[in-house]
Specification:
The chain has one domain (about 5-105): HIT-like (HIT family, subunit A). The protein is about 20% helix and about 20% strand. It contains two helices and five strands. A hairpin with a 7-residue loop joins strand 2 (about 25-30) and strand 3. It starts with a helix and ends in a 9-residue tail after the last strand.
Amino acid sequence: MDCLFCKIIEREIPADIVYEDDDVLAFNDINPQAPTHMLIVPKQHIATLNDIEEGDLALVGRLQFTAAKLAEEKGFAEEGYRVVMNCNDQGGQTVFHIHMHLMGGRRFTWPAG
């Protein structure tokens, strides 16, 4: 498989890993859009949000749980943070392995920016 995130999970490509458990890996984004910008990925390869099946619901919920836990650990949970998942090309997805962006440490505006 030629998936960037699978290679990071397998330690074939280095990353600045900030959290890991049996199901999830989180690492700092190499092109941060905020003072804190992490990617939270399931260790199971699922290409897009459209590919999530009913049996994956607990795993996808674990991504959100991990984001909240990391926001608390980093000290910006109370002030607020942004969590984003992109789907397919027009949605801005560039790596086809579902992942959640956790961004914090600054005020965000709407529309996203």
